Structure formats: C-alpha cells, structure tokens
C-alpha cells in the first residue's frame, strides 16, 4: 500500500522526490505557481494532477476525487515582516498569506501527518505577522501573545514640521502614488546617489522618460496638497539637471524626500489593504504607525495543535549536511502527527557527523573535465563511464550517461579577471579595490557569498541562485553550472530542469535537498506505520 500525498508550493519537486524515492508514497496532487518550475515538476514526477494557485484549491473536491490524503507536505514562502522591514520598502510580505493557505490545507484535509519546511528564521519570535481584522477572531480564541510594534513610514533623518501634514492624508493617500515605472526609475536614481558615474549614465539613458515624468508632475502645479507641491519641486529639479547635467546634489535632495514619501504611501496602502489596525501615529521622530503583531510559529502551533485540529507537533532546524548533502543548509522542519494517545516522536536524527561531511569534490569532482555549454537549448552532453565507490555521492548522483543542465553563463572579461584573482574560499571582499569598481552601489555592503570560489574539500554554504551570487568553480575560472548546483543539492543527473537559465538556477536554489527530504519521508513512513499498527 502507498500513502497518498499532496505537495503544496512544490517548486521543482525536491521534497516530492525524497518522498518518491522511498517507493511508499503516491503524489496525488501538487501545486506550484511558477510556470518554469511547473514544467520541471511535470517532467520529473508522475503526479496525477498539477495545480497552480494554492489560494484557489477546493480541498473538499480533492477528497471527493482522490479519497483521504494521508500526508500534506510543502514549503510555503514566509518572510514575516522582519526581513521585509530591513529592506525599508514594504511593511508586509505578501508571501505571508501563503503560510495561512498551507494551514488551511491541513485544516481542511486533516491528513494523518503534515510536513512543513521553511527557513530556519521561522523558529524565531522576531519572525512575525501583523494582527489584522481578518485573523483577529482566530488569534484571540487561541490566546496567541500579541506585542506592540512600530512601523517606520518616514525616516527620522528627513522629518520636518510637515510630518503631521503628511500623515493627515492617510485616508486618501492612494491618489498621490506614482505609477510603478515612475517609481522604479526614480528609485534607481535615488539609490545611485553614492555613485555619480552610474547616476549620470542612468539619467542619460532615460532622458526621454524623465522629461515625460517631469511633465506629468507639473500637471499638479498650483494644487495645495503638500505631496503634489513636492512632486512639482522634484519636476523642476529634474528639468534643471537635464539642462545642466553637472549638478546632482539638489536633485538628490528632492529625490530622497519624494522617494521616501512614495515608500510611505506604499506601506500605508499595504496596511489598509490587509486590514491592519493602526492604533496611533507617532510623528515626534519620523513617522511611525503603531500596530500589534504575533509570532508566525505561535500561529502555526496554536492553530494546528488546537482541539479543533488535534495535531502533536515537533519542530527543529535540520542541517542538510547531517543527512548527506555536500552543503551546510539549515532548514526549519515542522512535523505534525494526528494525536492518537500520548505517543511521542522526534524529527529525523543526523546520520553524518561534522567531521565526515560530504564535500564539493564528492558532488562535482567527476565533472571537472566536462566542458559546460552556454545555452539551455544546447543538446545534453554525453559523458564517459566512470567507476565510483559504491554508495559514494557521485555513485548515487550519476545515474545517467547523459548530462543535462551542465549550462553556465558566458562570463565577461571583468568577471573573468575577478575569478582569476580569487583563491578557494575567497569572495568579492578579497578583491583589490580597483577590481570592485562600477559593480555595486555600495561594495562594502556586498554579501560574503558574492563571487565566492568554493572550497573543493569542504561542503558548500547554502545553495541559492548561484548565478546571481556568481559562485565560482573551485579550480576552474568559470561559473558553477546549473547541474553542479543541482549536484550540491543532491539532485541526481536523471532529474532534468526546465525553463530559462535564470529560472533553472532559481529552481535549484529554492529546492529542498532530496537527500534531506528522503530522511524526512522515512520518518513520516515510520509514524504512519506505527499509527496503522495501532488501529
């Protein structure tokens, strides 16, 4: 007998693959919204039905057509507001709704077991949702702890005696918002204030657009509203700069104020659209909205362990390296088991200690002499047969004589010079200062994972979209290929990725390592077998 599974937010299917590898699970339904990931999932998994929008799924209909679903698995995107606030652009991550959609699926399907996979930050109390009218009844009934929060709407560094005037537009704020294209261009210019060369080039390349924007803003001339007046002042500075093209200081001052006002407008829209109650505004030092919040994990645990749903829940952070992945990837795993007596259980226990971790060489060393291609449309490569130690990582992953997705980005001369200058374990910060110029707005804030040359004889760090991070092969001056990234994630060579080059890199980076998924699947199988034996 096989247990029926639904995989939500399935991505390319790393979690599904780990479950399928046991031979004991049947994926009845999967849901994934990204079109490229959907193609990959459909190609590699014999799933009965592949849906797109999780928010529109009718779970009663799923039960009617497939019978009881034994297991719900998935990794809903969840940033809480802690990550979003650090970017200063948004008050709320729209992905937060998706965690609640996952909880809805469990509540309506009532599986025997559910598995939720997420970022390790989810366990932190700083990973939170804002308290809103839509969830007020549930949160209050569960007694979930609320705390007071302040959302910065306008920075203290720019505040003036006009703060109260700005907030007085709260109820009609939408009408002052710029269109998306206008905001994107002016925000780019604002962020380039520390790089005059880039600023000038961007302004020159977009001169016609800036003239049009200035003309649109000037249509508000003569209006009394403070925001309209500031837009007109900005329009005048744009026009003046385009005439002179040598003085950015005054334009940057106007850009800074207007861009931050638009960010404030965006945040206020979010608060209103999400029915988040603002208890008061504070305009003494900046402009702040006072709201209440609760921990994401408190919501998940409280709702699903309640008498209504009756799940015993265990959660912890698991390191994929402890389960055979050649990368240190920390993921927060929640397993819920339908209560039946007082049976205790634990998450999967590590099987590999830190002194025996698999390495980058274990994963991709056999591909070193195989030249990658540059286009996803190129034919897959035929690779020579090799002898591997039984049960080694390469032995497990090389399950095909055809190598798909061994594709890289064609590297430009500047990047190649940087590649050549870096030794194993070094990154962008190890480059000489002259090699960092004209790359990032503020090179000092670049993450340590950018231009990282991997160490052959150690596990890698967390694989994300390594095309964006410009990860470098340990011994060759080239980018890491999609297939090599997939190997680090423990996808076998027979698993083929679909879509554009960037989409494939992203799918690999988003995935649950199948070797970790398989360990979780075996634990779920153990729990299901014990439950069946008790019946």
Give the oligomeric state.
single chain
Number of helices: 20
How would the global form be characterised?
A: globular
Instruction: Sketch the major β-sheet.
Output: 7 strands, mixed
Distance between the termini: 16 Å
Class by alpha and beta content: alpha/beta
How much helix, percentage-wise, in residues?
25-40%
Approximately how much beta-strand content do the residues carry? 5-15%
Number of strands: 13
Number of domains: 3
Radius of gyration from the alpha-carbon trace, in angstroms = 26 Å
Instruction: State the CATH class of the largest domain.
Output: Alpha Beta
What is the CATH T-level topology of the largest domain? Answer: Rossmann fold
- The CATH architecture term of the largest domain is 3-Layer(aba) Sandwich
CATH superfamily of the largest domain: Vaccinia Virus protein VP39
Arithmetic mean of pLDDT: 90
Within the largest sheet, what's the order of strands?
A: 3-2-1-4-5-11-10
Low-confidence stretches: 82-87
Explain this structure to me?
- With 535 residues, the protein is an alpha/beta fold.
- The chain folds into 3 domains: 3-125 and 294-349 and 517-534, 3-Layer(aba) Sandwich (Rossmann fold), CATH 3.40.50.150; 156-285, no CATH class; 356-512, DNA Methylase, subunit A, domain 2 (DNA Methylase, Chain A, domain 2), CATH 3.90.120.
- It is built from 20 helices and 13 strands.
- The chain has helices at 14-20, 35-44, 59-66, 82-87, 96-109, 136-142, 163-167, 180-191, 196-205, 207-218, 226-244, 249-273, 296-304, 360-364, 393-397, 413-421, 466-469, 482-488, 501-510, 514-534, and strands spanning 3-8, 25-31, 49-51, 71-74, 113-119, 128-130, 147-154, 280-282, 287-295, 311-319, 330-338, 381-382, 402-403.
- The strands form 3 sheets. It has a 7-stranded mixed sheet with strand order 3-2-1-4-5-11-10, with helices on both faces.
- Helix 8 (180-191) crosses helix 12 and helix 10 runs antiparallel to helix 11 (226-244).
- The relative contact order is 0.13.
């Amino acid at each position: 007998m096989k247990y029926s599974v639904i995989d939500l937010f399935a991505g390319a299917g790393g979690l599904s693959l780990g479950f399928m590898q046991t031979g004991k699970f049947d994926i009845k339904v999967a849901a994934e919204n990204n079109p490229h990931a959907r193609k990959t999932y459909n190609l590699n998994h014999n799933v009965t039905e592949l849906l797109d929008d999780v928010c529109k799924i009718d779970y009663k209909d799923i039960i009617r057509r497939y019978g009881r679903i034994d297991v719900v698995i998935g990794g809903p995107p969840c940033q809480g507001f802690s990550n979003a606030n650090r970017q200063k652009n948004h008050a709320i991550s729209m992905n937060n709704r998706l965690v609640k959609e996952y909880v809805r699926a469990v509540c309506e399907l009532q599986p025997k077991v559910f598995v939720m996979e997420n970022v390790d930050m989810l366990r932190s109390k700083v990973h939170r949702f804002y308290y809103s009218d839509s969830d007020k009844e549930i949160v209050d009934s569960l007694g979930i702890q609320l705390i007071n929060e302040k959302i910065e709407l306008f920075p203290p560094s720019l505040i003036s005696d006009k703060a109260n005037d700005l907030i007085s537009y709260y109820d009609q704020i939408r009408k002052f918002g710029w269109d998306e294209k206008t905001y994107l261009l002016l925000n780019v210019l604002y962020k380039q204030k520390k790089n005059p060369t880039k600023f000038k080039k961007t302004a020159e390349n977009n001169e016609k657009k800036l003239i049009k924007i200035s003309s649109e803003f000037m249509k508000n001339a003569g209006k009394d509203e403070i925001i309209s007046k500031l837009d007109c002042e900005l329009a005048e500075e744009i026009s003046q700069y385009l005439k002179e093209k040598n003085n950015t200081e005054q334009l940057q001052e106007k850009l800074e104020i207007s861009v931050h006002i638009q960010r404030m407008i965006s945040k206020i829209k979010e608060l209103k659209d999400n029915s988040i109650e603002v208890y008061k505004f504070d305009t003494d030092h900046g402009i702040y909205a006072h709201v209440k919040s609760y921990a994401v994990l408190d919501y998940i645990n409280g709702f699903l362990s309640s008498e209504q749903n009756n799940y015993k829940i265990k959660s912890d952070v698991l390191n994929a390296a402890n389960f055979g992945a050649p990368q240190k990837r920390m993921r927060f795993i929640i397993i819920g088991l339908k209560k039946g007596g007082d049976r205790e259980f634990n998450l999967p226990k590590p099987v590999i200690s830190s002194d025996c971790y698999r390495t980058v060489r274990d994963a991709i060393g056999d591909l070193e002499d195989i030249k990658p291609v540059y286009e996803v449309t190129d034919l897959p490569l035929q690779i020579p047969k090799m002898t591997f130690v039984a049960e080694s990582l390469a032995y497990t992953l090389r399950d095909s004589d055809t190598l798909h997705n061994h594709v890289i980005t064609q590297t430009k001369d500047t990047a190649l010079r940087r590649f050549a200058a870096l030794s194993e374990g070094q990154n962008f910060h190890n480059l000489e200062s002259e090699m960092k110029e004209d790359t990032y707005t503020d090179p000092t804030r670049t993450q340590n994972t950018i231009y990282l040359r991997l160490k052959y004889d150690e596990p890698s760090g967390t694989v994300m979209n390594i095309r964006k991070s410009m990860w470098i092969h340990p011994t060759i001056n080239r980018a890491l290929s999609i297939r090599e990234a997939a190997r680090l994630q423990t996808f076998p060579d027979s698993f083929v990725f679909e879509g554009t080059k960037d989409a494939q890199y992203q799918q690999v980076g988003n995935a649950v390592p199948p070797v970790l998924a398989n360990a979780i699947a075996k634990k779920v199988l153990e729990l299901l077998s014990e439950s069946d034996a008790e019946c």
